[in-house]
Amino acid sequence: MVLPSSGQLFRAALEIEQPLQIVGAINALSAVQAERAGFKAIYLSGAGVANASFALPDLGITSLQDVLTDAARIINACKLPLLVDVDTGWGTDLTIERAVRELERIGVAAIHIEDQVAAKRCGHRPGKELVETAEMVARVQAACHGRTDANFIIMARTDALQTEGLDAAIARAKSYVSAGADMIFAEAVEKLEDYQRFTTEVGVPVLANLTEFGRTPAFTLAQLRDAGIQMALYPLTAFRAMNAAAKNAYETIRNSGSQASILDQLQTRDELYRILNYEQAEQRNSLQKPQK
Description:
There is one protein chain. The chain contains 13 helices and eight strands. The protein is α/β, with parallel strands linked by helices. Strands 1-2-3-4-5-6-7-8 form an eight-stranded parallel β-barrel, surrounded by nine helices. Helix 5 (about 95-105) links the parallel strand 3 and strand 4 (about 110-115).
C-alpha cells in the first residue's frame, strides 16, 4: 500500500476543515502538543527559526540549512503536514529549486515564498520593499520546477497590499497563480472585504495570517469563512505564550529565590511524560538491558 505524501495530507486536511487552522510550532515538542490539541496542519515560520533557534530578528539572516534542521526535527516527531516559510528563497532560481527539493525530501508538505526583496522585513513592519512582478513570477516557476511530487504545495505570498494597494496585490497574486502557485498567502490584510476580493478573484485557496500585534485583526473563523478564506494561520501564538511564561518564571525565581509561587502555572512532570510516552520508552529500554 502506498502511503499518501505530505502534500496529499495537507490537501486532504484542507477539504476536511474550512478554514483550515494552521498553528506555528517552533520545535518538535510544540508540534506534538499541537497534534494532541487536534490541529490538522502545522507551520514553521522564518521568524520562528530566527527568533527561537538563533535569537535573531526576522530579516532574512537564517539559511536553508537552518530551516531544514528545524523542519526535520518537527517532521520526525509529528505526523501532521508541515507548511514552511522559505522567505524569498535564499538567492537565485537555482537556490529556490534546491530549497524545494531538500524540503520535499525530508517530508515537508508545503512552502510559501514571498515577493519582498532579499533583505526582507516582517510582513507587518513598515518600509517593506518588493521585487518586480516578473522576478516573483520567476521565483514561483523555479519553486514549481524544483518539486518532484505534484502534490507538494507551492504557496505564493504577496506583501503588496500595504505598499501598492489592493488592486495591485490581487493582480500580483493572479500572476503568481498563472506561474504555477497552488495557493496564495495574502499578507497584512486589514479588512474582511479585502480578503473577499482576494478569494473571489484569484481562483485558488487563500491563507489569512492572523499574527498577533500586527496589521490583521483577530478575525474569527466564521468571519474568515464568510469571506471565502480557506486557511487561517496562527504563526507564533504559542511561541509568544511560551516567551511570556518563561520571562515570568525567570523573574520569579530571581526575585523571590523560589519557584514555589508559580508551580500551578507549570506543566507537571507527569504531563510532559505523557506527551513523550516516557513510561513506555522506559519499559522498552529496561527490556533491552543485558541479563546477568
